From TrEMBL, chain A:
This is FA complementation group G. GO terms for cellular component: chromatin; Fanconi anaemia nuclear complex; mitochondrion; nuclear speck. It comes from Loxodonta africana (African elephant). DNA repair protein that may operate in a postreplication repair or a cell cycle checkpoint function. May be implicated in interstrand DNA cross-link repair and in the maintenance of normal chromosome stability. Candidate tumor suppressor gene. The lineage of its organism: Eukaryota, Metazoa, Chordata, Craniata, Vertebrata. SUPFAM superfamilies: TPR-like. Keywords: DNA damage, DNA repair, Nucleus, Repeat, TPR repeat.
From TrEMBL, chain B:
GO terms for biological process: interstrand cross-link repair; negative regulation of double-strand break repair via homologous recombination; positive regulation of double-strand break repair via homologous recombination; replication-born double-strand break repair via sister chromatid exchange. One of its GO terms (cellular component) is chromatin. This is FA complementation group B. InterPro entries: FANCB (IPR033333). PANTHER family: FANCONI ANEMIA GROUP B PROTEIN.
Length: 626, 848
């Protein structure tokens, strides 16, 4: 059964340890060469091969009983394997914890200390291994290397307590000496490897540098969010002066920009942002931050330009740079959550921000274009679902439609606004609850049914305004009437409850409802005025004043109409009331209205308030003089 | 009736032999039955071919089959089935080996008795020869001699025994009892013993000693005697549940087995391309491992037994797996025959196999998939390229816009009172490190006596040292005077007894060192290139100011001018004296310069002094230098190399720390920017200076003894630095050349801009004229009634009005896209060139 294959291969090695060591060194060298080859696909293939090589090597080493003489090599191979695996799969998994655990168990096995400890966790395992290893100096470099990987694993899984304890034992300090992670990392000095030690892909000191930058950045971001700015600044500067890859440097500079802006140093913040943009290929976060900065500086043109660039930047799919076969800072950082300064959202979110800022700053034409682009983007389904920007809270889909319609009307594109409104009505009609609707249903239901009647009535209001722009008064009146009909179905006692339960929301629906009613009444009133039907107008204005007794716009329109109808006494009485009101502090406006509603309200704002008041005052004085 | 006591299976030439030891009630002695079973491909089942039997002779004994195998008989050389029977009576164990002939007749070949029972350490080998281990000794009996012989080696275990070429039967085992708790497992040793030669063979080429405590079973694939040394290629099973292949004593491949406690491994020649190792486990499981890639091909659980032979007559081997069937007493009722490639027969397929090997349809699919994947790859690449292009364009746009915005801000368009302060602060951060400047040796101006001036407040110190072949003279100049090498020359005048004195050829160097540890600059990157350009573009007086502000403050800086000259020619004089003279060129307003000569002192040197080592340089031993002069001499005399170090992906901000940690450098206490290497070896004492320019770029200056040390040093650096760096050696042209070059490129930039602007202007003008003429023509054609003309002219008037307005607003100055592109390209190219020139000059300033 023995096949006769020639066996005259070169003479055998002195020991298989040397052989494996050579294999390890060869794999490391190959992996390092791989990094230099430009082709991503080939690199991945080679990394896969190297990974397989390390895995086989580890099997070979574990095929022997644990021995002190072989452990430095075995631990180094484990470290290389973990490093390659983590960088290849771009993240830590449970496998790495198991690899580390096996390595530690082998150390104990070599010392015949393995037994009842098998059940204990990694933390206890490290304690006993580090306790033993103090007697085995030859193991220390490899153990520190493995500890570096453990630290990276714990940092990436946010187990900072364990991490601090591990660093304390590595530093040989008493537990409870210092909890400052950055300080612990800085004082940790992994022992120098012998020059004849097996090669490593990334040594313990390199890992320490990465850990230091990652934890400084994490800490800085945390402090930035909690508002301890001077500490955030120093943490972030620590991160910037550490080892960073280009994308990480962009993140650090952006965070520094945010920090300095909040500290009132916009120029220095800008320098960092420019540096961030120059430095890398990740432009989203610095551009968004730049827009915030310019907004704070009041430079609207620059702000909008930054936002435009942000939209462009987010439209480019990020090409993944050829990965380094090392554990990098990015791997240890969590994905930025929405309240992080490094969060820049999606393209549609940026587009919405741009459009709404244009509308807010009075650039209606631009706003209209951007809103149309945004709607096209959303309706084409290029993005699976539009989720509002959570910080500050953004609008949902129907509100985007309404804002778009408002912007179009503002930009004198009433016909387009009508189209948008129709589209919205088609989409929301199915959501509209059966009449009559009350806030009771609203409270129990989800967000959409709560607001759905609001949106529909707002759509009618905008349609009416579009008709006004187009000069069709009849259509306008009918739209405003439909709007009011819908709005007045809400029962007042329910409203009170609704107000109470929704008071914590960004915009209380009851306030929005009230303002909508006001806007619709005044709008219809204005159409009546334009068509010369002042009595009808008077009715609407009276009603609007009843709804919002303190509202100055409504009061002025009423006053003006009374005057036009020559009902002097009523007008005078009302004027006195108005004068008295001006003494009072204005109604609290802590909550903001939706942007589309703000825009609607701006249209019904009487133009010449002061002149009217002045005229009134003089005419009254004249009459009193008489 | 008969009751089956024991049943054993053996395969032989594609047949399955079923041995049954039956106790019959009628007869006194039990009978050994054999059934030859053949697999019928038609019925897909085993059929009985023939039977035979053997009646045990001894009465009142307990019989047992302890082993069956196919071994060769030395008389015929034929491989035949053998069955080993044990009979026990009153604690005396009789053993006999039965040979089964093809006629189904049994022949008793060998018999012996022992006072103990043989456990599973028994092996039947060719001969036939029976081998077993008892306590610590190994015994054997062959059919030739017929007597039990003890092997003179203390085997603690035998992992393999078999016949090898001209060595005959060879035993492979361990000679010490492996202890599981031993922390040095290499103590136990493998031993190879040839029974025929009765000698221990060298074991170097078989299995490394490290494995002696874990190997449990071996399958030898090939064995050969080369230069009287036994070489083997073998497969071993270990206690760590691994299958390992060794070749010439080196482990080649390792396979982690899917079950624990493997007990046997067999080779199955399944096809021409690849073979399989079939591993059986004590847990009644089995698995197959591909020979080529050493990967587990498939696994089977809870099997009764497995046999390997060519059962279906295909010419290659298959594995026969048998499972216990509860209903049927026939052991061949539930089986599977497979070679894991193409042959697959099974009797109860639903629960026999756990996993399926790769079958041919899959391979077909694979071929169909590959071209599709390739197609996708290509289009993905194109998409990737397009993305990249867009990426680049966008990047350019973003940078230009951001710069514009920054400029606007800096120019104060939205400035606040705090902004200027802040800018100042930033500018301070941007202050680069000062540099010294180098200049080739000057020829001496003879008119020194005219301009000699008082030197007391100018020269702090003068000293000289001998280093290798050079004489180094250093002069420390008071820091109140800011000088560059361009402005100073240190000359050595050989003062002979005779009245003629002559000038020595020497190399000058200016050393400026900061004694203050600079605060770590905040990591805002800055553009050196454009900075230098901006300085050049400003007025001359401003330039000087900005130069001054770039120097570290005066009191923290040490200025030394050194002169290095060749020593051997001077030693010929055995005793000589030199006058050290400093020439300072002071720049007055404008370009006129005035020379000023400062005598620094005399130096006396004799051969005796040198041989006594009086002026020899000592290398710095501690962090602080005991002898400052020696250090300056080192800086002057060592070779100086400048490198631009860049990293494409990472920041280099920790470079200084890396030098301290990886190269074992130490910071020189007096001059914190200098690092001295304390790593034992050839580059001990090498000096480094790291200057960070941008986060990802910096200048490294290396002072070392010679070029080979430099190469060694760089090689080491590249190996140990934790990130990939690129080192570019900077060739230092003269400063004048660089300045001229910058001036030239700036001029070109300006010319390009003006010329392209004028061409654009010309185009706009010609366009305008054409339009004007066209409209004139149009209007002249229409000659109709006056009112009509009036009506028709009206829109043109309006047009004219509009255009006039536009021209005044400068809005109609349109040029064609092609011209615009051409202009931007030209200007960008010119700007790039001047930027590069500016950068070069800036690097030069840093290096010196």
């Amino acid at each position: 059964t023995m096949s006769q294959t020639p066996l005259d291969s070169p003479s055998p090695r002195a020991s298989c340890l040397d052989l494996w060591r050579e294999k390890n060194d060869l794999l490391v060298r190959q992996a390092k060469v791989t990094q230099d080859s430009g082709l991503l696909l080939r690199q991945q293939h080679l990394a896969q091969d190297a990974l397989q090589g390390f895995r086989e090597l580890l099997h070979s080493l574990r095929g022997l009983p644990a021995a002190i003489s072989a452990l430095p090599l075995e631990l180094t191979v484990i470290c290389n394997f973990i490093t390659l695996k983590v960088s290849h799969t771009q993240g830590f998994t449970e496998d790495q914890a198991q690899d580390i655990q096996q390595g530690l168990e082998r150390v104990l096995e070599a010392q015949e200390q393995l037994g009842p400890r098998l059940e204990c966790g990694l933390r206890e395992l490290w304690d006993s291994v580090l306790h033993i290893s103090s007697l085995l100096p030859e193991l220390l470099p490899a153990l520190h290397h493995l500890a570096g990987l453990q630290a990276a694993l714990w940092l990436s899984t946010d187990r900072l307590g364990d991490l601090a304890l591990l660093l304390q034992s590595l530093n040989g300090s008493q537990s409870g000496a210092s909890e400052d992670l950055l300080l612990l990392l800085k004082t940790w000095s992994p022992p120098v490897e012998e020059s004849d030690a097996p090669l490593t892909l990334q040594d313990a000191r390199g890992l320490r540098d990465v850990l230091l930058t990652a934890s400084a950045l994490c800490q800085g971001l945390q402090e930035l969010i909690t508002g301890t700015l001077p500490r955030a600044l120093s943490s972030l500067q620590e991160a910037a002066s550490g080892l960073c890859s280009r994308p990480v440097l962009v993140q650090v500079y952006t965070a520094l920009g945010t920090c300095l802006r909040k500290m009132g140093n916009p120029q220095r913040a800008l320098l960092y942002l420019v540096a961030a943009l120059k430095g890398g290929s990740v432009w989203g976060p610095p551009l968004l931050e730049a827009s915030r900065l310019y907004r704070q500086l009041g430079d609207t043109a620059a702000e909008l330009e930054s936002l435009e660039l942000l939209v462009d930047a987010l439209s480019v799919t990020q090409n993944s740079e050829t990965p380094q076969l090392l554990i990098e800072v990015e791997l240890l950082l969590p994905q930025p959550n929405p309240d992080s300064p490094l969060y820049c959202g999606t393209q549609s979110q940026a587009k919405h921000l741009l459009a709404s800022r244009c509308l807010q700053t009075g650039r209606a034409e631009d706003a209209a274009e951007h809103y149309l682009d945004l709607l096209a983007l959303l309706l084409d389904g290029l993005e699976p679902r539009f989720s509002p920007l959570p910080c500050p809270p953004g609008p949902c889909m129907p509100e985007v439609f309404l804002e778009a319609a408002a912007a179009l009307i503002q930009a004198n594109r009433a016909q387009d606004a009508l189209t948008v409104c129709e589209e919205l009505l088609i989409r929301t009609s199915s959501l509209l609850p059966k009449m009559p609707w009350s806030w009771e249903d609203a409270r129990n239901g989800a967000k959409e049914p709560i607001n759905c009647p609001l949106w529909v009535s707002a759509t009618y209001l905008l349609q009416g305004q579009a008709w006004v722009k187009m000069g069709d008064q009849k259509e306008a009146v009918s739209e405003f009437s439909r709007c009011l009909e819908l709005l007045f179905r809400a029962t007042p006692e329910d409203r009170e409850q609704g107000a109470a339960s929704n008071s914590d929301q960004r915009c209380r629906p009851d306030v929005a409802l009230q303002q909508l009613r006001l806007a619709a009444l005044i709008s219809r009133g204005l159409v009546w005025v334009a068509s010369g039907q002042d009595t009808k107008a008077l009715q609407d204005f009276l009603l609007s004043v009843q709804i919002c007794p303190g509202n100055r716009d409504a009061s002025f329109h009423l006053l003006q109409t009374l005057r036009r109808l020559d009902r002097r006494n009523e007008a005078t009485a009302f004027w006195w009331r108005l004068e008295a009101q001006t003494e009072l502090p204005p109604e609290d406006a802590t909550w903001s209205l939706p942007l589309y509603l703000e825009t609607c309200l701006s249209w019904i704002h009487p133009l010449d308030q002061e002149t009217l008041l002045e005229e009134f005052r003089t005419s009254l004085l004249e009459t009193s003089d008489l | 009736m008969s009751s089956v006591e024991q049943e054993e299976l053996l395969c032989y030439n594609g047949e399955v032999l079923v041995f049954q030891l039956c106790d019959t009630e009628a007869a006194e002695t039990p009978i050994l039955h054999v059934r030859r079973m053949v697999f019928d491909r038609g019925t897909r089942a085993f059929a009985q071919k023939s039977t035979g039997f053997f009646r045990m002779e001894e009465e009142n004994s307990h019989f047992k089959i302890i082993c069956c195998s196919c071994v060769s008989d030395f008389r015929t050389g034929l491989n035949l089935p053998h069955v080993m029977i044990q009979s026990e009576k009153n604690n005396v164990f009789d053993y006999f080996l039965l040979l089964l002939h093809s006629t189904n007749k049994f022949e008793k070949r060998l018999s012996f008795n022992l006072g103990y029972e043989l456990k599973d350490s028994l092996r039947v080998l060719n001969g036939p020869l029976v081998l077993w281990r008892h306590v610590t000794a190994v015994f054997c009996i062959s059919s030739k001699s017929g007597t039990v012989v003890s092997v003179p080696v203390n085997f603690s275990s035998i992992v393999w025994a078999g016949e090898i070429g001209n060595l005959g039967i060879v035993l492979l085992g361990c000679t010490q009892k492996p202890s599981k708790s031993d922390c040095a497992p290499w103590d136990t040793k493998f031993c190879v013993y040839s029974l025929d030669r009765q000698e221990i063979l060298s074991d170097t080429y078989i299995i490394p000693q490290a494995y002696s405590s874990v190997v449990t079973c071996v399958h030898v694939c090939a064995a050969e005697l080369v230069n009287n040394q036994l070489r083997m290629s073998l497969i071993a099973l270990t206690q760590k549940n691994q299958l390992i292949s060794f070749r010439n004593g080196t482990p080649e491949s390792v396979c982690q087995l899917p079950f624990g406690d493997p007990c046997a491994v067999q080779l199955m020649d399944s096809s021409r391309e690849d073979s399989l190792f079939i591993v059986s486990f004590r847990s009644n499981d089995a698995c197959a491992v591909w020979k080529k890639n050493f990967q587990v091909a498939t696994k089977w659980e809870k099997i009764l037994s497995l046999l390997i032979d060519d059962f279906v007559g295909a010419g290659t081997e298959q594995v026969l797996l048998l499972w216990k069937s509860s209903s049927n007493s026939d052991c061949l009722a539930s089986f599977k025959i497979t070679d894991l490639v193409s042959i697959n027969y099974s009797c109860q397929p639903c629960w026999t196999s756990l996993s399926h090997p790769l079958t041919s349809p899959f391979h077909v699919c694979l071929y169909l998939i590959i071209p599709v994947l390739e197609g996708q790859g290509l289009s993905a690449c194109i998409v990737f390229l397009l993305d990249l292009q867009q990426h680049l364009l966008l990047k350019e746009k973003i940078i230009s816009k951001s710069c514009k915005a920054l400029i606007n801000l800096v120019e104060g368009k939205t400035g606040t009172s705090s902004s200027t302060e802040e800018v100042k602060l930033v500018m301070e951060c941007l202050v680069p490190l000062c540099g010294e400047k180098e200049h080739p040796a000057h020829t001496f101006d003879e008119k020194l006596s005219d301009n000699l001036k008082d030197s007391e407040h100018l020269i702090e110190k003068m000293w000289y040292r001998v280093m290798d072949d050079s004489l180094v003279v250093g002069v420390e100049i008071t820091s109140s005077l800011q000088l560059s090498l361009k402005d100073v020359t240190l000359s050595l005048l050989l003062d002979q007894a005779c009245d003629s004195s002559f000038l020595l050829k020497c190399q000058n160097r200016m050393i400026k060192l900061s004694t203050d540890s600079l605060p770590a600059s905040p990591p805002v990157p800055f553009e050196i290139g454009s900075e230098a350009k901006r300085i050049k573009l400003t007025l001359h007086s401003e330039e000087e100011k900005s130069c001054v502000c770039q120097q570290p403050s005066k009191k923290d800086c040490v200025q030394i001018v050194t002169a290095v000259t060749s020593l051997p020619p001077l030693l010929a004089l055995s005793n000589f004296c030199c006058i050290v003279l400093l020439q300072i060129r002071e720049r007055k307003n404008g370009n006129l310069s005035e020379d000023r000569y400062v005598p620094c002192g005399r130096l006396f040197l004799s051969l005796d002094d040198i041989s006594r080592g009086k002026y020899l340089v000592t290398f710095p031993k501690n962090e602080s230098i005991e002898n400052m002069e020696d250090f300056f001499v080192l800086l002057a005399a060592l070779h100086k190399f400048c490198f631009q170090v860049t990293s494409s992906g990472h920041t280099l901000t920790s470079m200084k720390t890396w030098f301290l940690e990886y190269i074992q450098c130490e910071v020189i206490k007096e001059f914190p920017e200098m690092l001295v290497c304390k790593r034992p070896g050839s580059f001990y004492g090498t000096l480094f200076n790291w200057k960070q320019r941008t986060p990802c770029e910096g200048i490294l200056i290396v002072y070392c003894r010679n070029q080979s040390v430099l190469f060694e040093c760089l090689r080491y650096l590249i190996r140990v630095l934790p990130i990939k760096c690129f080192f570019k050696k900077l060739k230092l042209a003269s400063e004048d050349f660089l300045t001229d070059h910058l001036a030239l490129t700036l001029e070109k930039e300006l010319v390009t801009l003006t010329s392209s602007l004028s061409s654009a202007l010309a185009e706009v003008e010609s366009n305008f004229v054409q339009q004007y003429e066209a409209s004139k023509n149009m209007s002249s054609v229409n000659v109709a009634s006056l009112s009509e003309i009036e009506e028709k002219i009206h829109p043109y008037r309006k047009e004219l009005q509009r255009e006039k307005k536009q021209i005044t607003l400068g809005m109609n100055l349109k040029v064609s896209g092609a011209l615009y592109r051409e202009i931007t390209l030209k200007v960008a190219e010119a700007q790039l060139k001047s930027d590069l020139a500016g950068q070069k000059l800036a690097i030069y300033v840093i290096c010196l």
